[in-house]
UniProtKB/TrEMBL annotation:
<dbReference type="Pfam" id="PF13977">
    <property type="entry name" value="TetR_C_6"/>
</dbReference>
<dbReference type="Pfam" id="PF00440">
    <property type="entry name" value="TetR_N"/>
</dbReference>
<dbReference type="InterPro" id="IPR001647">
    <property type="entry name" value="HTH_TetR"/>
</dbReference>
<dbReference type="InterPro" id="IPR036271">
    <property type="entry name" value="Tet_transcr_reg_TetR-rel_C_sf"/>
</dbReference>
<keyword id="KW-0678">Repressor</keyword>
<keyword id="KW-0804">Transcription</keyword>
<dbReference type="GO" id="GO:0003677">
    <property type="term" value="F:DNA binding"/>
</dbReference>
<feature type="domain" description="HTH tetR-type">
    <location>
        <begin position="8"/>
        <end position="68"/>
    </location>
</feature>
<dbReference type="InterPro" id="IPR039538">
    <property type="entry name" value="BetI_C"/>
</dbReference>
<dbReference type="InterPro" id="IPR023772">
    <property type="entry name" value="DNA-bd_HTH_TetR-type_CS"/>
</dbReference>
<keyword id="KW-0805">Transcription regulation</keyword>
<keyword id="KW-0238">DNA-binding</keyword>
<protein>
    <recommendedName>
        <fullName>HTH tetR-type domain-containing protein</fullName>
    </recommendedName>
</protein>
<dbReference type="InterPro" id="IPR009057">
    <property type="entry name" value="Homeodomain-like_sf"/>
</dbReference>
Amino acid sequence: MGNAEMANAKRQNILAAAAKVFETHGYAEATVDAVAAEAGIAKGSVYNYFSSKQELFTSVFTESMSVEEKEIVARFGRTSSPVDRLMLLFDHWYERYSHHQQIGRLVLECWASAARESHNGHVGPMSTMLNDLYARWREMLTGIIAQGQQQGQFLADLGPTMAASVLMGTLDGLTLQGILGVGIVVDQELLLRLKRGFLVVLGATEAAEQLVQQETPDANNPS
């Protein structure tokens, strides 16, 4: 293993340790000493890669979201169909739902940190990162919806950017309710209803009905 690979492996080890510490203790109570202990390295070694606890915290969330983006972009590469791409997005969210519950405290800490930065009237590292993240996702989903409109699959009079924002808000809201444990049950039935409901909103009623037929056992031929 070369020096660059060793350095990257050590950095990833620190990030994994930091994720555990932040998730367990929250940002305010987490310390670089605790991260170093979790990673099994000296405190000074952490500072060789990250200048502060804030940078470490931001990097943990950024790395996690980067993995998410790469995974969904790879999935989108399997098809050029706007409908199929949106369905893949729902599938990806569903498959990652349990992971989001595991890192729920970290997610809430990130949102809270960004909110504090924005409320104080200045642009901080977390608010900047989230603004960029949401802008990329919104642009990507807006493009998919606009493509569906151009192909006649979705309603032409829908605002694609607004539709993309509603989709993002829906998934964020469900994730938040799951993290808070307020009674929502995320299962295959909910996933199907989400897919069908959003297709209906977009005007893709035929695709919505086909989805139900594909996902629902044949009621006319009970086994």
